[in-house]
Predict the structure.
Amino acid sequence: MIQHGFTPDGFNISTIVPLVKNKRKSKNGFKNYRDIFRYSLIKTFDLVILDKCGDCLTTDNLQYGFKRKSSTSDCMFALTETVNYFKKWYKLIRTYAGRQ
C-alpha cells in the first residue's frame, strides 16, 4: 500500500455509530448527533504506521490532521482567526480609502 499508493476497497469500510451530544436536547434532529467511526482497517493501519515509524515521519507545520497533538479543530481555529484578521483589515482599508 505504501509503495503503490493504493488501498483496497475493504480498508475504507467502517461502522458509524451516532452518538447523542446533549441528552437533554431533542433526539429527533441530526444536529444533536456526532458520528463515531467505530472500526476501520485504514485507521488501524494508520495507527500501526504511526507507532512503528512515527519518529521518522515529518509533516509540514500547516498540516493538522493525521498528526499527533493536532486536530482538525486546530485547523478550524486557524482558518477562523485568519478570516477574521483579513475581514478587520479589509474594513480598515475600505474606511481609509473612503477618506481620500
Summary: Residues 46 and 66 are 8 Å apart (CA to CA). The chain has two domains: 1-57, 58-100.
